Amino acid sequence: MERRGARETTVETSTIYSMGTALDRARANGLEVEVLVSGVWLTGRVVASDGHGVVLETADHEHAVARLESVLAVRVHDDVPARVTIPTQGQPF
Q1: Angle CA 34–40–46, to nearest 5
Q2: Is residue 48 part of a domain?
Q3: Is residue 71 part of a domain?
Q4: Which of 6, 33, 51, 78 is the most buried (most CB within 10 A)?
């Protein structure tokens, strides 16, 4: 099917922002996080994360270790990562 006079633009972008991604970003930027494990929020800075577990260092220089499969939610104490805006039809890129 040929369409004449219509401008077709396909923009594909995919970002999978998982809990592991959030923890890796927090570690790389030295950010404090909270992770929800078994109904308890654990707070600290991510000092290690290997895809199976995460190690958080607390403000008291203690540490907590949690399996990623047990983490139900992650709060990162920072702005939301950059979002890509896709223009609507008729708007230039």
Answers
A1: 30
A2: yes
A3: yes
A4: 33
Per-residue pLDDT of the chain (93 residues; tens, 9 = 90+): 444 554 444 445 545 678 888 999 999 999 999 999 999 999 999 999 988 999 999 989 899 999 999 999 999 988 877 666 666 666 565
Residue 3 lies in a domain: no
DSSP 8-state class, residue 27 = H
- The length of the chain in residues reads 93
SS3 per residue for 47-78: EEECCCEEEEECCCCCEEEEEHHHEEEEEECC
List the beta bridge partners of residue 48.
55
Domains: count for the chain: 1
Question: Is 82 within a domain?
Answer: no
Residue range(s) defining the domain that contains residue 23: 19-76
